[in-house]
Design brief:
This protein is an alpha+beta fold. The protein has 5 domains: about 70 residues, 2-Layer Sandwich (Phosphorylase Kinase, domain 1), CATH 3.30.200.20; about 180 residues, Transferase(Phosphotransferase) domain 1 (Transferase(Phosphotransferase), domain 1), CATH 1.10.510; about 35 residues, no CATH class; about 140 residues, 3-Layer(aba) Sandwich (Rossmann fold), CATH 3.40.50; about 70 residues, Tetratricopeptide repeat domain (Serine Threonine Protein Phosphatase 5, Tetratricopeptide repeat, Alpha Horseshoe), CATH 1.25.40.10. It contains 23 helices and 14 strands. Strands 9, 10, 11, 12, 13 and 14 form a 6-stranded mixed sheet that branches. The chain has a 5-stranded antiparallel sheet with strand order 1-2-3-5-4. Strand 13 and strand 14 form a beta hairpin. About 10% of the residues have low confidence.
Length: about 525
């Protein structure tokens, strides 16, 4: 046993098939009688569809002799509650990193219509310098049970010290802003050492929450900046309309960390200038060299994060030309047998996603390291004479080097799929050892119209427009029945829409397609 709480007990186990440790959460019999196995498994199935670097992955679930359970990713570390119990107040930079990663996870879930309803330190796990949000789906299952008036005393939805006012009053409609209030409570506690409202009973906490403003953070901890305090206080607004509307807005409002962890992410040319003027330069330089060697070992040598390319206005009749071109680059990398491409769009703050020019080297390197990728690509599409010029900047994070690849097209109206395939071949050639053949036939051999529909499908999918994405992926398959990559993505979109029969059909197409797929 590695943990126990009011609703469940957690055990460490071994997944023999995949040779990995897992955690099994077994819920108490009282919860099973309240929630019901069917409702529980339905909510866990939805939560299991969440794939995000800061959401704890769910692998399996079931009902064993009336005991509900699910199997989840095991992360070696501790909960935020354990760290708070040990340290009380946390360093501001750590607070910012944890809050940003939790907000990123919430943004992803909220875009898919899921509200956590129980954000608290116990449900935030810390491992390897990163935060993971656990228990998506559980509070929602209990909440639905309460809505049907079968929830007995003792099975609570949420935790009193972290509940939003509307959740505490059992409001009929709870939206994403309730999770943001809870995040504000967690941030307040990380900064001050205790939640904004405490009391001997849930009723006492609720009374203080409704009658009192939270105590100003800077009276307890003067080193907290006014900007950070204002962000937390806005999260704790009693009326949902007075809070941030989305988790992505919270990420934008959070100040950037200023301590050592962030200094290590400053671009190399700035870092050298900083070191040259710092006291104790030899000691600091030695520390950075050690940090770089450790980071180099941890980075996957053939993994590349590709960010949307910037563009000046509409290119080729397409306002999303740079984003779509990046999609083809990622797909091209993934169709090889030795390279892996990661879509950088999903790791960006929503306010930056549609503004590729705002992607700095500092931000791109931070994302690449978080993804464990040795390389990242940023670039731009511009007009050159009567044609187009695509410029790709390929950065090696481990070696702190960069190179530039260019693709010139004589026609300004060239379709993105045509330009993208040429650029993908150049990129793959630059990453593979000299003389090694490049096989992009699973993508290059496709009908251009099918590739165009696939790219449009990806654009819809990453924005959680799953019905639209399914239509576009299906069109790509209809235009080219051998397009396995489009079929696979279509199956994923169909699953989100609960169109399981269509998902099965598309999986059959994908399996019959090329062996090498993302």
């Amino acid at each position: 046993m590695i943990g126990a709480g009011g609703m469940a007990t957690v055990y460490l186990a071994s997944d023999h098939k995949h040779r990995r440790p897992v955690a099994i959460k077994v819920f108490h019999a009282e919860l099973a009688s309240v929630v019901g196995g069917e409702r529980f498994l339905r909510e866990i199935e939805i939560a299991a569809g969440l794939t995000h670097p800061h959401i704890l992955s769910l692998y399996d679930s079931g009902d064993a002799d009336g005991l509900l359970y699910y199997v989840m990713q095991f992360v070696e570390g501790e909960s935020l509650r354990e760290r708070l119990t040990r340290e009380g107040q946390l360093p501001v930079d750590d607070v910012l990193e944890i809050a940003r990663e939790v907000a990123d996870a919430l943004s992803y879930a909220h875009m898919r219509g899921l509200v956590h309803r129980d954000i608290k330190p116990e449900n935030i796990l810390l491992s390897g310098g990163h935060a993971y949000v656990a228990d998506f789906g559980i509070a929602r299952a209990v909440s639905e049970a309460r809505a049907t008036e079968v929830t007995p005393t003792g099975i609570a939805v949420g935790t009193p010290a972290y509940m939003s006012p509307e959740q505490a009053s059992a409001a009929n409609h709870i939206d994403a802003r309730s999770d943001l209030y809870s995040l504000g409570c967690v941030m307040y506690e990380m900064l001050t050492g205790e939640p904004p409202y405490t009391g001997a009973t849930a009723q006492a906490i609720a009374a203080r929450r409704s009658e009192e403003p939270p105590r100003p953070i800077r009276t307890v901890r003067p080193t907290v900046t006014p900007q950070l305090e204002a962000t937390v206080i806005q999260l704790l607004a009693k009326a949902p309309a007075d809070r941030f509307r989305t988790a992505s807005q919270v990420m934008t409002a959070l100040p950037l960390p200023s301590g050592a962890r962030y200094a290590a992410l400053v671009p190399a040319r700035q870092r050298r200038r900083w070191l040259a003027g710092a006291a104790g330069v030899t000691l600091v330089a030695a520390a950075l060299v050690t940090w770089r060697l450790i980071a180099r070992e941890a980075l996957a040598p053939r993994t590349v994060v590709v960010f949307p390319l910037s563009q000046a206005g509409v290119v080729g009749g397409n306002a999303a030309y740079g984003e779509n071109l990046a999609t083809i680059l990622v797909t091209g990398l993934n169709t090889t047998d030795s390279l892996r491409g990661i879509d950088g769009w999903m790791s960006l703050d929503p306010l930056v996603r549609d503004q590729p020019r705002a992607i700095t080297e500092q931000l791109a390197e931070h994302v690449a390291r978080a993804k464990g990728a040795r390389f990242y690509v940023v670039g731009r599409v511009s007009r050159a004479d009567s044609g187009l010029l695509v410029t790709l900047d390929l950065h090696d994070v481990a070696e702190d080097t960069a190179g530039t690849l260019t693709v010139r097209v004589t026609r300004a109206s060239a379709a993105v799929e045509e330009v993208g395939l040429t650029a993908a071949r150049r990129l793959v050639l630059a990453l593979l050892p000299p003389g090694r053949p490049v096989d992009l036939s699973s993508l290059e051999g496709r009908a251009p119209a099918a590739v165009a529909a696939y790219v449009q499908g990806e654009q819809s999918y990453r924005r959680a427009h799953f019905k639209e994405a399914l239509d576009r992926f299906s069109r790509a398959v209809a235009l080219d029945s051998g397009f396995g990559v489009a079929a696979l993505r279509g199956a994923q979109a169909a699953a989100w829409e609960l169109e399981y029969e269509q998902a099965t059909q598309l999986i059959r197409v994908a399996v019959a397609g090329p062996a090498t797929m993302p």
